[in-house]
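User: Round two. Same drill as before: sequence, then structure, for each protein.

Assistant: Same drill it is. First protein:
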Amino acid sequence: MYEFPMGECQCGAVYACEATGHNVGAAMVEALMYACDGNSDFAWELLPEEDYLTGRIENYDERTHQVVAKKNIDGRAVRGVLYFVRLHTDVSEIAKKIQQKNREITNETLQALLKEDRAEIEPLPEKDTVRKKITKRQIKGLVSQGDVEGLVALCFGDKKGLRLLQRLLYDPVEENRWYVAWITGRVCARLSSREPGQVSELLHRLFEACSDSAATPWGMVETIGYIVSMRPDIFGAFARHLLNYIHEPSTRTQVLWALAEVSKNRPDLIRNLPFYSLFDFLQHPDAGVRGNCVRLMGNIRAKEVRGKLAELQEDGEEFIYYKDGEPVSMTVGKAAVDAIRAVDG
């Protein structure tokens, strides 16, 4: 896994050995990665001196394990460098907790994946089926009826179907947008069993719309959340890109909701992200942000923030989150109690 020989010192530091002296920069990176158990996202969040100390020994000969001041042994040049990294105690403890929790979550997820039923593959449309032109009115009617079966059939016949579904997200009524997002997620979950390319293209369009400063991202993050959560086996890699919109006030709550939705069945996908950057949202003044962040931390069983969750148990402010396209009201305190139960369980 690592390019250079690695090791650990009794003092708690780790080291990388670079034999030529010409590639010390790469050795520095690998030593820091090794100290963080290979978690690159966590490693790049750390600051030298503030989070870890470094040191180096020049003129090290890895053959004899000696420091050669003359830089030469019997005519053989000695230019090796030992580069050391030692995390501060609190940072080291966090790294170990993340490592242990990731292993636990991964093992649990693997067991769940082995036990769960595989998604059914949609039957192919009959060869003699006449393809009909889809209209926006037709799509809107099926959505209002909740006819997922009919929508799936139309989308198999005409790729324009998902584009028309996306247009329905531009609705000034928030409840309508959430409902359309949920319907779209269900349609995509079934459609992706045969034509994942169509759904992947939709996800790319949704992300582009979220990034467009001249457009309103109504329903975009919500739809992404439903699609990824319903088929994480195919689209789980898209969860990482949701973090790009966490600092925008217009999408912050939706991003936390989407991550919480994905983490219900695949907590490992979220724990593989730099999720510790989300801890501060537990103290956010907006109840919707706090509440959805609490739900997320409970789903991934984040023991790292159990103390902060305990402080929120008396928070009586209500927030709204959506389940199956319908709004659900809950207090932040109730969400914190549920999250602590999940963390301790």
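Second protein:
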Amino acid sequence: MDWNAAIERNREALKRVLAMLVAMAGLGPRGQFAFSPQEGAAVSRLVRAQESKLSLPRHLHRAVLRLLRPAEAAARRLVIVMARGLVVKLPPARPRQPQPRSTILHDRLGTGILMPRGFRPEAGPRPPARRTFSLPLLDPLPRWRTSRRPAASGIPRISFPGIIAPHSVAVRQPPSPDDPVDAARLALRLDALGSALDDLPGQARRFARWRARRDAVGAQDKNRDAACAQDRQGRSTGRTRRLWPLRPGRPPGGRQRAVHEVHEVLRDLQWFAVKALERADTS
């Protein structure tokens, strides 16, 4: 099996899907992102053009999101295939840093507040940090069916009989397909998908580090469970952790009948990812 040919073929297909999604959302040179081919970079690299707030009509936002979910799932499986047989060495654990002490000292007599020597208040509020987003390496788990809280159909009316007349309640309008929806997170997800497709070796090392941490924690949990079995109480202090990166059942955004190219890419990469994981577990 030619793994490299399969990786390159599906990578180019995901680049075409990403370019189509950016064009659908209207994120061209006048939008928040723009395609900018650079030397040594892939053609599909997304470059931030401006920080203005972006909004899309509801129907367009849902249409892009309907194809973005399977594209992200396919990219995760492409990273898993890329990380087959990759072994990394985990860095040593970082020592815990002591918590910073409070800059406000209380007087022992309780009559006021004393400031430490050399304390200088900040000049002003810090500017908000720039939001970043990375492609998640693990599939989101399926949501179990639970009873939803009914949506409120009105607002409470408080009045005094004989003094204040009850005001009329406006009828709640259903959401319109043309309502503006904030697309800032959607743009961040498109940016993360483009960055992951540009840096597949780096994403593969990232997944290999997660796999190494999972194996190390699993070995520690086995030793802890063996020690707890000898204990009288027999209680384990371990917590639930993800052991399998893929979602059980159908992948996110997957369909039985492919209606778009991204569904066919997801179906192929699902098979390759399962084979790569089985090969890593049996080796």
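Strands lie at 33-35, 46-48, 55-57, 105-106, 113-114, 180-182.

User: Perfect.
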